[in-house]
Amino acid sequence: MRLLPGRLLARVTALPAIALSAWLLVAFPLLVGGWFTPMIGLVLGLPAVVAAGALLPRLVPDLDDVPWWPVVAVLLITVAFAAVQIAYHAEALVIRRDPASYAMYTTWIAEYGHLPIPQQRELIAGDDPALSYQSLAHYERDDVIWPQFMAGAPLVLSIGYWLGGLDGMLVTTPILGALGVLTFAGLTARLVGARWAPLAALVLAICLPQQWVSRFTYSEPLAQILLLGGLVIAFDALSRRSALTDRWSAVHTLAATAGVVFGLGVLVRIDAIRDLLPVIGFIGLLLVARRGQALPLLGGLVVGVAYGLVAGYGYSLPYLEYLSDSMVPLLLISGGVVFATVVLTAALWHHGPPHTERVRWLPDAVAGVTVLVMVGFAVRPLLWPDYGHGSDFTDQWVAAVQGFEGLPIEGSRTYYDMSLYWVGWYVGLGAVLFASLGVALVLRRLALRRDLWWMLPAMLLVWTVTTTLLRPAITPDHPWASRRLIVLVIPAFILFALWFLARLTRYCEAVARNTGQRSLMRSLPPVVVAGAVASLLVPTAATSAAGIMGYRQDVGTVAETERLCASLPPKASVLVVDSGMAGGYMPLIRNVCGAPTAALNDHSPEAVERVTAAVYERGRVPVLAAPEWATLDELTGNGADAERHFHVIADMDPSTLMTPPTGSWDFQGSVWTVVPPAPE
């Protein structure tokens, strides 16, 4: 069979979401059963991925009118992005923020294949009141420990760990980030045109947040692949008409696949429930329109979301309890959306979809309201500055960053009103302007019942952009806060901006054709294209180049972690005696080094002697760990020599509030250990 460029571009951009979803469908049940091991993963997971990757892309329809150069350009950009990100990947293993939390989650399940994590009290000092087992991103419940966050990203990162240990795990996310760029190019090729796909891929690839999240073990790159990939496969499934009574065909399989891909986003990030609410409404529209893809899409969505809910409430319950103030309203809203969709679908069943094009004023009103909403976001900082984190710790951190930047100290300031400007930092104000015009025109055309292939992407992206810009719900320092933008918000702005520029270019080409041979008008289309490219690439590249992309972060942590683990005695039970250090290093010692670990909260000589004696009584070797030599010297009464087996001085992210992040801060980490003398 001849390999056509339109066929290759269509299939290769759908493949990442298909392959990763196949892996997650197999891997999560293995984790639930406690059988998540390399051998079983190879025996069951690899055939599922190979089968899905070999069969499902064959059902994807070819893209029309695609030359070879966009395909080659997209693939080169994807490979180049992966290479650069691997070269600059971070080594975040000490928990300060989320990347190391995901890394520690990954190392545990990749090494031991099950959850929860046992506390192993019996190997330390039993139920001694001086000990605790909770640490950053690890919740103590009864006699076990539950890691924070959802299982999806660690299940994928485990593949890298199995293949290459800690280094293999850390370079997996750069590859996922590159696959996100590839998937976005495929969505652009379908909705805007294949010739615009390379520009879409390049803008996203040089965007600072895309590079930043891809250098760490964040969940956003995987979530991006699944949600954008769901839009890609749904577009392909809906490219041919099918009635509710038609027999099962390729479009039904693709629709079911799209539903699963969408739903598995919840397995990766619980807040994907919010992003998927428009999909429910869209399924209602498909049912009203008697489209045969409706029920397969619904069935696949239910399967994927069920995976996510089981993972959340079965294996991340303490995390969801922590998020209860936002989770409970989200679940209630979700129930309301499902109920409203059922009622409206039943009401419209005999009348068909609403004929919005018959209301003459409605399309223009939709476009006008869209522009006004974007203007509202633009003037929001002047009129409605936002306050109230609901967390004393966050208030203190924001106040500290304000002090660094010389800003007025207002710890409760959320800076959520600046969210549209955040987007402008990273992709340029030109992209924001073009995207605003683009989304207004797309919604106007949908109200006229034109370009209906845009319906689902517009519903999902407009909803997510609006809700995210209204309330990012994240600590507002950067680059940290840019995580909220990179999964769908920044891709949405790039996509709508390119759609507007593509239409503008076609309009200019038509004008040039109609004006004959006048040289000035014939040069108009190339000038517009050049201006479009510059307006998107120059600001995006400038922010990245002046920002934090020129150095690796936490370099040396892998080597020092291996040195620390090698220094521990064979039957070590580690007691971390500094409260500040306990949160960040306990998971490292337990999950990577495999040593039973607890925090020693009572530093009195009596407590230290009692606990260390209990460890010796169990045939174990107590190891005291602290960030400073003096702490251990005091605890052991000068009776043993402490040694430093972990010492890292490296670059780390800065934190900014009113400007894009630039430069770096210093990360310094040390672990001193000592084996106290056995009781006589």
From TrEMBL:
TM region(s), chain numbering: 12-32, 39-56, 68-88, 144-163, 169-189, 218-238, 250-267, 296-315, 327-349, 361-383, 423-443, 452-473, 485-502, 523-542
KW Membrane (keyword) present: yes
Coiled coil stretches, renumbered: none
Domain of life: Bacteria
Keyword terms of this UniProt record: Membrane, Transmembrane, Transmembrane helix
Protein name: Glycosyltransferase RgtA/B/C/D-like domain-containing protein
Organism the protein comes from: Nocardiopsis alba
Native organism taxonomy: Bacteria, Bacillati, Actinomycetota, Actinomycetes, Streptosporangiales
